[in-house]
What we know:
The structure holds 2 protein chains of 2 kinds. Chain A is an all-alpha fold. Chain A has helices at 2-23, 46-72, 74-78, 80-83, 102-130, 135-162, 181-212. Chain B is mainly β. Helices cover 9% and strands 35% of the residues of chain B. Chain B has 7 helices and 52 strands. In chain B, strand 1 (28-35) and strand 2 form a beta hairpin. In chain B, 32% of the residues are buried. Mean pLDDT of chain B is 68; it is low at 1-19, 359-370, 444-452, 661-676 and 681-895. The A-B interface holds A 71-75, 78, 82-83, 129-133, 180-182, 185-186 and B 144-145, 173, 198, 200-202, 204, 206, 217, 219-221, 257-259, 273. Chain A: InterPro entries: 4_helix_cytokine-like_core (IPR009079), Leukemia_IF (IPR003624), Leukemia_IF/oncostatin (IPR001581). Chain A: It is found in: Secreted.
Amino acid sequence: MRVGWFRASVVPLLLMIHCRLMVGMPLQVNLPSSMCENTHVCKPNVAEQTRKLVVLLNATAQDLFSIYLDRQGDPFSSHLDELCNANGTNFPDFHVNRTSRTKEIMVALYKVFAFLNASLGNITRDQEELNPTAKELLERLHNTTKTTRGLISNLTCLLCTDYKVSQVDVTYGKSSKGMNVFKKKQQGCQVLRRYVQVVSQAAQVLLPHLSQA
Amino acid sequence: LKHLSPIQTLIFTTPLCDRQKVQEFLPTFLKVSRNLPLQRLLVEWDVSDLAHQFELEMVFDIQVSRSEEMNVVWTEYYNTTLSKLNKTLHWSWDSELPLECMSHSVRIRSMVNDERFSKLWSRWSQWETVLGKQNDYTPYIFPEDKVVEEGSNVTFCCIGGKDSRILNFLFNYTDYCYPDSNTSQRNMVITMNKVLHAEMPGIPAFCNLSGKGNKNYSATLLFVGKPPHEPKDLSCDTRDMTTLTCTWNPGEDTYLYGSSQKTLCYQETETDLEPIRCSWAIGQQMIYNLTLTAQNPLGERSANFVLDVHNSSVVQSNSYPHLTLGGLQPFTNYAFRMRCGAASHFWKWSEWSKTIRQLCFIEVTPVLGGRNVTLFWKVSLGISFEITWEKLKKTSEPEHISISALQNSTTISIDNHSYKISVAARNNIASSLPSVIIISRVTDNEKVDHTDLEEERVNGTVDGIYIPWKATNAFNGYIVDWCNFPRSQHCDFQWKRFDFNTSSCLINSAAFMPGVRYSFRVYGSLANEDFFLGKKVGYTKELAPRLNPQGEITEMTSHTVTITWDSYPMNESQPGFIRGYHVYVKTMEEECSLKGSTKHALSDGTVLCKYTIENPEEKRYVVKHLMPETTYALAVKAYTGGGETPIDGYIRVDTLHDFPYLFVCVFSRMKDCCCPEIPNPNKSKALSCNGLKLNSEAVMKLSDCIPDTIVLENTSEANTLQLWSHGTILGSESKVINPSWVYFVQNEEGDLMCTQSAPEACTSFENLAYSSQTALGSSLYQNLWMSEKSEPQLSILSYQPQHYIEIPSKDTVTSLREITEREDSLRYISQMEVPHSEVKLSNLPHSTEPLEHSSYKIQTVLGSELVTSTSDEDIHSQDSSTSSSSTVLLLLGRH
């Protein structure tokens, strides 16, 4: 009976949350324990793997942003500060530093990459529509999305098992559906530009803490 | 008519018709809406039911106005016949100006277009308005993401937010437009004429503003393109008779991308993002009427095709074909790709396969020395070699060695059986397909005998040396090999492959130098074996001989002087082919008056008599018609294709008195003095060897009195001479020689006997009676080496025998030529010291040291199999092995 209840109630709920994540709808995730469902004891190398994933994302972020700009045309590449100011997005703040507690860093990372994951979904969908021939850009978007999902999985495991955090309030960007093309491109530009900055900070901050962990 | 009859009934029965009154049908329920993507106003209205009942033909006058001032921008008469069933009337209007830019209002009036009614307009309906974008604090620009055809005019509008002012409009970062007045401009309409497509889809348009709003610009993108082109070049195929796939050429670029552009094919199967292909299951249907429709926001184009699946032909191959490419050059980059088509019922080529790039091909060549096989290859970074060899016919475990990337050769030892040698190049990823070479058995009667093939001189220029050969159908390729540095121990072995229809090549190398003789061997290649076809020698440029013939007066009378220079080499040490000799005679007279000579004037005015010997093998000349008791100066110069060097020294000679006979006695370590009875050399027992006959024209030298008995004072000296013969024969490698040795031994009666190790004719002759000249010969020899010290590059001369006495016999001359040829044809690389006769050759070191001037050395086999005796059999054996040394050049991948 308990198994049946789980299948009937929790799984659809998780699926629903997951789907909403994917479409990038603004959503406050405050559901207790939903984050830590199905998590198990982390493998010993998860912390190090997490750090390496951040390092990998940091290493590829600038190229992704540059290629994105190239494919959007002149106004964005030539008027970057005007058009791609990250103030227009809801990109989460990343105020932790090397002196912060590891737990706080993990939470901050989780917020950043949860936001990024949803935004990448929007950006990828838009670019598949607007630039279907931009194979390299699409490939990099897909790869970054996959790495981000892996990173979220690792962070979830660390938060739930090592740091006993079962709830993190996360925000997502605006859905680009219904936006005009210019706005879609602009939002992607804003998010990716901010992503380059934040993932660099994350790579800097992450190293000493994870090595202690 | 059936429909009209009720109407007619109504017309004639109603009072309305009878009175011909003006009937007004005022448009009612007017409703206006917008289709923003199409920038279209949608207008709906109605008229009274009575009009519908009569199914009247009516005209509606429709007006469209913009802004609050109601400026009419469009008037249109809309004719329609009313229907009883569908009462709502529709009309639409596409606006040039984006509908968001301003409010749009519509009003309508009507008139019955029927002769039975008065044609009077009804009153106007009320204006029905749809509002434009309402001003708030956000600035806007319209239209958004509009798609237009190239060359169109496009109207934009900027809507400034509250408390903001439009500064300018910027299109594609090139065209600026400014509002008419700088005062409180919150709306602006701009039309861009004849827009062109951009390199990147989406031309940006900006409105820049100033004011209190938190955003000081608004932006949009304009997509400029072309309607789709008609699909053409349709072709369909099926690979499994289940699914039919069609491809076509969509035509020129429309500059529009994304899902807005699509192509529909059979049964409206939508294609993927790249609208050039669609496919569907074949099923039972065999004939298809295929319609291709290309769509994009600017229009659509269709094309129809009829497709009969019956016309398809089945092409299949269960094999995995492979082919071997020949004629490839080593260290050359190649790119390979392939496509296939049906051999029968050819329809079309398949698409090209993925291109494979092969960075280089490595060639391996074995050079046989005895039964030691030396494999050469060209070093390539990161490539090592795996070598495996096994007996062909007998089952045995294959042997295997790995060679590092740094080595460029290795030697393996095999016995007399036939062997298969496989060589595979290996990098850090994988091995190549092995190359296979077959080494024939030692006693294989079918092997090519190199001795049957003569050395051929070829011409060279600064562009290279031209190597021709006779191409036949017997071979599937040819190989030419040579050494870049033939005088060096590490000769830098080279080879090139040519395909079967090549019959010549021009070999050149940056290493080629003038005055160096290069030797080229040509092989025919068939299957895994290669067959020696011939040897070619040539120079890029011949130079004059640097070494003068060492002329020697060997005979003199009162009227003649004989000068010989038999030790003069003609081998590869010469900087050109020796074409002949010039003998110069300097007389005391100012003019040359010797009969048979030509005049030769020197730069200092001296005139010499000049005789030309055009046969390079002739190394003796008799100067005739001299005066008795006269002093002459003689000089001999050799000339090549590069000419000759100036005379740098003379031999002075005084002719004898003019006596009728000359008797000369020579006391040379003999007990008796010269007797009145002159011994005849032709009758001497010492010269009575089988097969040796002295020419009747033999000339005795002054010291040529031959005793009947000779006491050898120095055995080793005699041995040295014998060994010289040895060395000469051993040094000849490429000919199958049945060498025989002439041993002079004293019999019991004290007679000098000649014995031979083989019944064949002697190839050289040593008369120990002439050993008295050993000292002279040695000095000549020493002189030679002294001269070479100044030119060490001539060190290879050292194996040329310098010391023997000429027997001017025809046979002997022939033999000497053979010896010279054999030496010329030597292709072994290293040199080793001449062995002592008692020393087994097997004990000889395989010298790799540079030749020392103080020792006499011949060329011999590098790494040759040990020869333990000089018996016929052994020499045979050696020759057999060397004669089987047809060089086999391999291309990896050939198997």
